[in-house]
Design a protein that fits this description.
The chain has nine helices and seven strands; from the N terminus they run ααβααββαααββααββ. With 222 residues, it is α+β, with helices and mostly antiparallel strands. The protein folds into two domains: 12-88, Orthogonal Bundle (Arc Repressor Mutant, subunit A); 102-220, Muramoyl-pentapeptide Carboxypeptidase, domain 2 (2-Layer Sandwich), CATH 3.30.1380.
Length: 222
């Protein structure tokens, strides 16, 4: 399961657990639709629960990363402090099983279109940008465990025998199935770039056809 990132944001499982309560879903909807900071009093009145219970649920939404809170509202002060107000967090939340990273793919394609160099066609730009993004990821996670990093991206790596790791999930499916030459090429370039700078020179990314898995395998020690 992923929430979609090279980027940080709310943990999708924790956020889903928080939203299992109907009052919290109603409070989140009210705060998002308000388009301005909302006080506990306003939220409790909108949902029809006590201020104390609203405060409890709102703070749970803050802890999960779905809302943000600060003191500074325009309502009546309590014990000398400005009221606590709540606003939507800047993050979006998406959950998919198996994990999909269409946000990453869209970002790579957008960068390729906007950063295309003279004499470079769209495919060449896409492969270059994918590799550069992979290199940036590898540099930022240098010496981290490869399996853990790939798990965080939704690849579902698994040991397939001596020196061979299969990636059981394609984070870019089903788009990859529609344009395999381009998307699988970008995926391969991304992983090659990652491995080149991650501090694991003994591991390489190899394009390998799989019907129900990622098009890339990792080979170590060859």
């Amino acid at each position: 399961m992923t929430s979609g990132s090279e980027t940080s944001g709310p943990d999708p499982i924790a956020a889903l657990a928080v939203l299992g309560d109907e009052s919290r879903r109603q409070l989140l909807d009210f705060v998002r639709r308000a388009r301005r900071p909302v006080t506990r009093e306003e939220a409790s009145a909108a949902v029809g629960i006590s201020r104390k219970l609203a405060a409890f649920h709102l703070d749970k939404l803050v802890a999960s990363g779905l809302l943000e809170a600060r003191h500074g509202g325009a309502g009546p002060r309590r014990v000398g402090r400005a009221p606590k107000v709540y606003e939507p967090s800047p993050y979006s939340l998406s959950v998919s099983l198996p994990p999909r990273r269409h946000d990453l793919l869209a970002s790579l394609l957008t960068d390729a279109l906007t950063a295309q160099k003279p004499g470079e066609d769209a495919r060449e730009a896409s492969l270059r940008v994918a590799r550069e993004r992979g290199e940036a990821l590898g540099a930022g996670t240098r010496d981290d465990d490869v399996t853990s990093t790939l798990e965080s991206l939704g690849y579902e790596p698994a040991d397939a025998g001596p020196g061979r790791t299969v990636l059981h999930n394609c984070p870019f499916h089903p788009v990859a199935a529609q344009a395999p030459e381009l998307i699988c090429g970008m995926n391969h370039a991304f992983l090659c770039g990652y491995l080149a700078t991650s501090g694991h020179p003994e591991t390489t990314a190899v394009l390998t056809a799989h019907e129900a898995a990622c098009c890339v395998e990792l080979h170590t020690g060859e």
